[in-house]
Amino acid sequence: MIQAxxxxxxxxxxxxxxxxxPALIPKPQDWGKHISVSGFCFLPxxxxxxxxxxxxxxxxxxxxxxxxxxxxxxxxxxxxxxxxIFSVVEKTGQRALVSKGWGGxxxxxxxxxxxxxxxxxxxxxxxxxxxxxxxxxxxxxTTAAGIVLGKPTIVVPFFGDQLFWGSxxxxxxxxxxxxxxxxxxxxxxAAAILxxxxxxxxxxxxxxxxxxxxxxxxxxxxxxxxxxxxxxTLRCDLSxxxxxxxxxxxxxxxxxxxxxIVLANEGILNFNDLKR
Length: 276
Known about the structure:
With 276 residues, this protein is of the alpha/beta class. The chain has 9 helices and 13 strands.
């Protein structure tokens, strides 16, 4: 799957920019002014995507399906996970889009149940517009892509910060509590999906999505990042219109590549004295 948002922290001289939504996770009161929470930063891909005819036909055949996919996660037994997912679909009575992902779900020798469509690479910001809820591993990008579109979310965390994102979504009422992969069964995932499709959860997810959709994460992150830059420390001391890429060892003198080469050619500077 192509992920949508950038979630990382950008750090410059005077400010840290956290690319996550304050609507989902408010800025802690003990964080100073030098830390900015900008909102999720999305890279829109939906406007350029055209679904293949089989996918478009599947979506048109019935009500919005659930989405199940684990992205770049590679399970130790993809066949067992595929069987579990197909069992979940049967238990819920829902149509489903199942992403093959890097784990190779839906092996060719499996019989694909009726009402299941196996997905290849589809942009999340287009795909999630057409589903009723999303089930995934809890990567920050996938989580943001689902909740900004107001979709109830169930996270099956494998490691890292995935449990955190699933817990935050559940705390907001926009999905069921996360189910760690080692505890995953067809029964508990089916129950979580049916819970996520209840009117109260659907409404909470829509409300969260509406709040997130008003944020201008990319613009705010860029603005905050540039506000924190100390441009004087980026300039060459000898040629201020050029960007400094070197510092002379044991001094605060900053030099551009051009200035360093000129000084070295004149025998004034030894390249061994330059530090990044």
